[in-house]
Structure formats: structure tokens, C-alpha cells
Amino acid sequence: MTTHTHDDALTRAARSLAASLADSADHLAAVLTCHELTDVVDLLAAAGHPAAGARWVEWHAGDPRCTGHTTLDTTPAPAAPTISSLYDAHGRYSPAPGTEYPYSVADIAYATARATGPDWSAMALPWGISATLHGPCTAHFTLLIDVEGDLCLTYDQATADGWPDTPDLPPGVHEYAAGIYLPDATSTDGLDDLAQQLAAAVRAITGH
User: Fold this and answer.
1) Phi, psi at residue 34, to the nearest 5°?
2) Which residue of 48, 78, 191, 198 is most buried, as measured by CB atoms within 10 A?
3) What is the pTM of this model?
């Protein structure tokens, strides 16, 4: 037999009340004080109705008695992965897609193209595990992960492009036979940070 506690009853009552209030903003929000509105929005958010809370704020903000009241972001933040969500029923490590690696190599290439300039574009290769980068030059770049797990940007230099013989590469970028690589870059680095670092390297290589 399932035993229901007093707290369970209060939770159910709060959720029932929140559900009944969710669509009543148009005729109730305006009569509340700012303090009362905050309590209602908190209740709606806790009961799983954050969008309804936002509607209450919008209706209340139109009341001339409301001064200085700001619209709150009632959208709950994405839940952080928990131990139980990273493992399946058999105890095997099995995180949801996008949990362990939030972006692909192709995503880095697209962000790099945007950071390099309007004349640059990127194209994902199959499965997004590598991508090409194209700009106002004859040669093109390929972004990939090598067998050692390093983020690499390979390219074939074309004489017609007139690139510098000894490019002044940004910190953290190293040359190797096929191009450049970032030995300290990891998948936990921010997408924009990686893109800016790669864009700086491309500009140094091409001289533009």
C-alpha cells in the first residue's frame, strides 16, 4: 500500500491550484500587487507551468499601478546530467546524445567561418566528424581530429595565394607537416573560443 504524507497532499494541491490558475492571467494578474504576482509566478514555475508565469507577468506589467516591475525569465534552466542519467539500466555508461560532446567538429568549422569573416564558409563532411573551410583563396582547409585526439587544420598551400612563408601563429597553435594543430584544445572548451583561436590561425596563415 502506498502511504501519502501531508507534504504529498500539499504538493498535489499546489499543482492543482497552479493548473487552474495557468490560463487566468488576463483577468486576475492586473488586480495583484507585485509581491503577490511573484508568489503566483513562483508557484506556476514550481508546478511545471513556467510559460504561464510569463503570461501573468506580461498582463500585470500593463497595469498602471505596476512601477518598476521587470519581466522574469521563468524558463527553467536545463537540468545538469546526473549519475543516473549517464548510465543505463544495466549500469553501462550511456549518456544521452549531446551530453558528453555538446558540439561536433563541423560545428567548430561553421563557427570558425563566421569568426574569420564574411568571405569564408564551411561544409560538413559525412557524420560531421570533419569539415572543410573555404575562403578567398585557391587552397582550402580541412578541420579534423587526428589519431592522437588533437584538433587539426590541414591545408595545401598554393603558390598563387601568396601566403606568408613563416606565419605568426597565435598562442596554442602549432605547425606540423600537414598544417596546424591545437594540442591543448579539448571538447570542454567553448565553441566560440575554439572558433576565435582557429580564425586567428587562418588569418595568420593566409596573411589576411
Assistant:
1) -60, -40
2) 198
3) 0.60
Quick one: angle between helices 34-46 and 6-21, nearest 10? Answer: 110
Read off the amino acid at residue 64: P
Burial environment of residue 63 by CB neighbours within 10 A (0 to 12, 13 to 18, 19 or more): middle
107 Cβ contact list (under 8 Å, min separation 6): 128, 191
Convert the pLDDT of each residue in 98-131 to its tens digit.
Answer: 888 889 999 999 999 999 999 999 999 999 999 9
DSSP H helical ranges for the chain:
6-21, 25-28, 34-46, 50-61, 83-86, 105-116, 191-206
The answer to whether the CB of 123 falls within 8 A of the CB of 131 is yes
DSSP string, 69-129: ------SPPPPPP-HHHHB-TTS-B-PPTTTS-SS-HHHHHHHHHHHH-TT-EEEEPGGGS
